[in-house]
Amino acid sequence: MADNKRIKKQTTIKKTAEQPKSKSRCPVFKKCGACQMIDTPYEQQLRKKHAHVAELLKPYCKVESFIGMEKPEHYRCKVHSVFTHDRKGNPLSGIYREGSHEVVPVDSCLLEDEKADAIIASIRGMLKSFKIKTYDEDNGFGLLRHVLIRIGKNTGEIMVVLVTVSPIFPSKNNFVKALLKEHPEITTIVINVNDKQTSMILGDKEKAIYGPGFIYDICCGMKFKISPKSFYQVNPIQQEVLYKKAIEMADLKGDEVALDCYSGVGTIGLIASPHVKEVISVEVNKDAVKDAILNAKINEVKNITFYQNDATVFMQQMADSGDKVDLVFMDPPRAGSTPEFIGSLITLAPKKVVYISCSPDSLANDLKLITKGGYKAEKAIPVDMFPFTRGCETVVLLTKTN
Ligand code: SAH
User: Fold this and answer.
1) Are the CB atoms for 260 and 292 separated by under 8 Å?
2) Same domain, 278 and 391
3) Which of 109, 115, 237, 297 is the most exposed place for a label (fewest CB within 10 A)?
4) Over the stretch 34-73, which tens digit does the pLDDT of each residue have?
5) Which residue's CA is the closest to the ligand 1 atom numbered 10?
6) Claim to verify: residue 385 and residue 243 sit in the same structural domain
């Protein structure tokens, strides 16, 4: 009931003020290119995205209304800013111009958490007095390359990651003191050393210079540890809506064995664990599996097992050994699953499949194969995880027909 109420509330979308045609809501819209729908009123964004998903899924099932956000701005709780300087040596921070390494200065972004943007602005403002030079990609001089902020929306914890080319950060204690004076809400500060010529933001070495070096967030009543490199959805409000929908659609009775494929840091499996007998999770990324095991410990979940493996290989092994599962959650990356994974899924023959997708195109491709294998798509619900962009997240329930 509470869930229904919440969803109802979320679907009554407030009108965002329409902007005059000539002026974009974002001054760097053209240079950045991340928000394809920045100047489209929110309801219209949802209508457009719904039409796109509905068209792709037409052969399989009807698509319910998009679950939008009540306040679609500033949802990103993971914010990255690249640091450089102008010709006079004044520090600049912002984003890379699309397809290049030129930095477009950004002070505030409509997608990003406002506190994160304010912290980035403070750091930029402090650099001169601390004589900290920003890194120069052309000649390799300077220290500070990037700042990454991660916010635990439901815990209020804030992590600041200073990405530098060297582990030696001059007057680091005073720098920490000055930053905390401006933003006492920061709970941890980490120096991450990236001395390679690479497009990756984070390097391998890191050291907490204030606090524990990680934050926690809470999602659907479970606590999750977020380290600088952990995968965690960028929109925590809609993440909770999405996972609740996935669990609700699975209609769990408590005696099921559930498989969570492409499990990341264990989120869906852990959230489902109180509602089933057992969860088996599989994920290819070693660090994510480590985090998942830790997350199970933190939440005292005992009925979950994590396997680090390629999901297709794991699924084939499960199918070959004649294992039985009642339900499969699958949340593959953008490219979708593989025909071999789906072949094994069909052999495994769970009663239900809950497919969580971040790409309607690959979802449609995979649904074609799953429905051919004796499953019916019962319903599809799109959740707006990425307002102002083309991104569409959809949950689909499939049931076995024979
Ligand atoms: N379910 C998680 C993560 C979804 S993102 C969540 O909701 O947070 C997709 C995940 O699939 C990533 O963690 C990625 O590392 C993993 N992945 C990608 N290819 C994979 C493969 N071949 N086998 C298993 N996991 C894979």
Assistant:
1) no
2) yes
3) 297
4) 888 999 999 999 999 999 999 999 999 999 999 999 999 9
5) 262
6) yes
